[in-house]
Design brief:
Elements (H helix, E strand, L loop, with lengths): L11 H7 L6 H4 L5 H8 L7 H12 L2 H19 L4 H12 L5 H10 L1 H13 L1 H9 L3 H8 L8 H12 L5 H24 L5 H31 L1 E5 L5 E3 L2 E5 L1 H4 L9 E7 L6 E2 L9 H17 L10 E2 L12 E3 H11 L2 H7 L3 E5 L1 H10 L1 H5 L7 H21 L13 H15 L11 H10 L5 H22 L13 H11 L7 H26 L5
Parallel strand pairs: 4-6, 4-7
Antiparallel strand pairs: 1-2, 1-5, 3-4, 3-8
Helix pairs in contact: 3-4, 4-6, 5-7, 5-8, 6-8, 6-9, 11-13, 12-13, 13-15, 20-21, 21-22, 22-23, 23-24, 23-25, 24-25
Length: 546
């Protein structure tokens, strides 16, 4: 299998063609022919030299700015040549320079800070979505330089502190909500840069994305709850000792968020639970008191809107509430007692699998811990239940997925759901967890890779299988990230076009071959090996045990 390099390298043939070429006549000479332009630009991987020249001329501006750009031109072209899409990089450069930033100051700064020049080229040539973040807020460049983002990965506490500082400058709720959206954009840029530079591995990236979601959802909850309590007072109920106490509300993270393994364009799967439906809000006479049930339904609805709604500043996160009791037909928030009753009496096996990854991420987390403790018997299942029941559930879910993929012709191209894809690793792990939890409670780990390691330590899976699944899972998750970071879309499907596959490979760190077909084939060989190994282990562990 091809070992990935830390930084994508340029094609040797292009490097040889570029040696000794000074591209500055593109900016400093007049009346160059189209053949001259092509001779200067094609060695840098440019496929459309006329358009690229137009980009450069637009960037150049007045004579003084043109001379300042000429100073950095060769290094800029060398850097964009190493990216997945050099032509798009120059398009993005033109848009960035025209976004309002002072050109001469920018070019002079980049001449003194070549690492920032390379960083911008990496962004512009690999991720249009990240480029758009800089184009709409060009001064982020200087924040990136000051923070040295390529060298620093903030902890969850540090991100939380930075977010609260940003929110502290605003008084109105709407301005605070937009501050959440701006913070998300900025931090996604930070995470994406470390990913593209390959200084962050898959584990760091998914952890950072999950931490970012947690701090944003907690902050959004606090703002919404504060706004509602001003209108209606604080929800209260009588506890078991007869005292009136505040009624808690918890946001449970499910799926990849609950497992701390979010990807770039994930929905966040949430479940809302509140402590008691008895009681009502309590406040001053100016506040309109309502029942707890009404208060928390309003809170759930407004929190979902804040996270979901798109404004000029973007969105915080897309929210999926379909894992709540009764799915789409149920209320957005349910009391703890009602939720426990639902899962104990009506919960289905696929919901057991979903709750393996559940985790309180915002609000009154003790309410969430109490809830999960009370439905533990549902999640774990009956001690004497035959293991075939879990296997049958997994196979039923997989068959439905496979049928849909076959209809769309994506069974081998769908990185998440296809044959040997991410979901096969997840299904295998969850099946083993549910079938062995009574004997080995420690297997109930939310994170897929940590759970895999646990299965190996308990000799429930062979060390070889665990190692192979872990390697392939990380490869597939990295590929999923590189597909999604292009346009910030929730896509999991490999493109059909070999040029687009080659671009994806370069984002992952593959060397550029002599042409895009060669690069794509090297990547596809690796992809085939990984998916074949995953499916082989899945078949041995799941299908052959039926």
């Amino acid at each position: 299998m091809k070992k990935r390099s830390k930084q994508p390298e340029t094609r040797t043939s292009l490097l040889n063609k570029r040696s000794g070429i000074d591209p500055t006549p593109l900016l400093l000479s007049s009346n160059l022919s189209s053949e001259d332009v092509a001779r200067f630009l094609t060695p840098y991987g440019i496929e459309h030299p006329t358009q690229a020249d137009s980009n450069l001329q637009s960037m150049a501006g007045d004579p003084e700015e043109r001379r300042a750009l000429a100073v950095i031109l060769q290094e800029l072209l060398e850097a964009v040549c190493e990216t997945a899409d050099p032509d798009h990089a120059l398009n993005a450069w033109e848009q960035y320079v025209a976004s309002g930033i002072q050109r001469r100051t920018l070019f002079q700064f980049l001449a003194q800070a070549p690492r920032m020049l390379h960083l911008l080229c990496t962004i512009f040539g690999n991720s249009p979505a990240m480029a758009e973040t800089l184009i709409r807020d060009p001064m982020l460049l200087y924040w990136l330089a000051e923070e040295r983002v390529e060298l620093r990965c903030p902890t969850r506490k540090q991100r939380d502190r930075s977010l609260r500082e940003a929110l502290g400058t605003f008084r109105s709720y709407e301005l605070k909500y937009d501050a959440l959206r701006r913070f998300k954009r900025k931090e996604m840029l930070h995470i994406g840069i470390r990913d593209l530079l390959h200084v962050a591995d898959v584990l760091e990236t998914v952890s950072s994305l999950s931490d970012l979601a947690v701090v944003l959802i907690q902050a959004a909850y606090e703002i919404v709850n504060q706004e509602l309590s001003v209108q209606h007072g604080i929800p209260t109920h009588q506890n078991s000792h007869g005292d009136m106490v505040e009624t808690g509300f918890v946001v449970l993270g499910m799926g990849k968020l609950g497992g701390g393994e979010l990807n770039y364009s994930s929905d966040v799967d949430l479940v809302y639970v509140y402590e008691s439906s008895d009681g009502q809000t309590h406040g001053t006479s100016r506040e309109i008191c309502i029942s707890n049930e009404e208060y928390f339904e309003k809170l759930a609805r407004e929190l979902t809107h804040v996270l979901n709604d798109a404004t000029d500043e973007g969105t915080v996160f897309r929210v999926d509430l379909r894992l709540r009791p009764e799915g789409d037909v149920g209320s957005l928030a349910k009391s703890l007692d009602d939720s426990v009753r639902y899962y104990r009496t009506r919960g289905r096996d696929w919901e057991r699998m979903a709750f393996i990854k559940s985790y309180p991420i915002a609000g009154h987390k003790q309410v969430g811990r109490n809830f999960l403790r009370q439905i533990r018997t549902f999640i774990w299942g009956k001690k004497d239940a035959p293991p075939e029941l879990v296997i049958e559930t997994v196979q039923s879910l997989k068959a439905k997925i496979q049928k849909n993929l076959l209809q769309r012709g994506e069974e081998t191209r769908h990185v998440k759901l296809g044959v040997g894809g991410i979901r096969e690793v997840e299904f295998l792990v969850q099946a083993f967890q549910l079938n062995h939890v009574h004997q080995f409670p420690k297997v109930m780990e939310r994170n897929t890779l940590k759970a895999l390691n646990g299965l190996g330590e308990l000799n429930l899976l062979s060390r070889h299988s665990v190692k192979q699944l872990a390697i392939s899972y990380q490869f597939l998750r990295d590929l999923e990230h590189k597909l999604q970071m292009v346009n910030d879309l929730q896509t999991h499907v490999l493109p059909r076009d070999l040029k687009e596959i080659a671009k994806c490979a370069v984002r992952m760190g593959y060397d550029k071959g002599r042409n895009s077909s060669e690069t794509a084939q090297v990547f596809l060989d690796d992809y085939g090996l990984h998916t074949t190994e995953v499916h082989r282990i899945y078949r041995q562990s799941i299908l052959e045990r039926q």
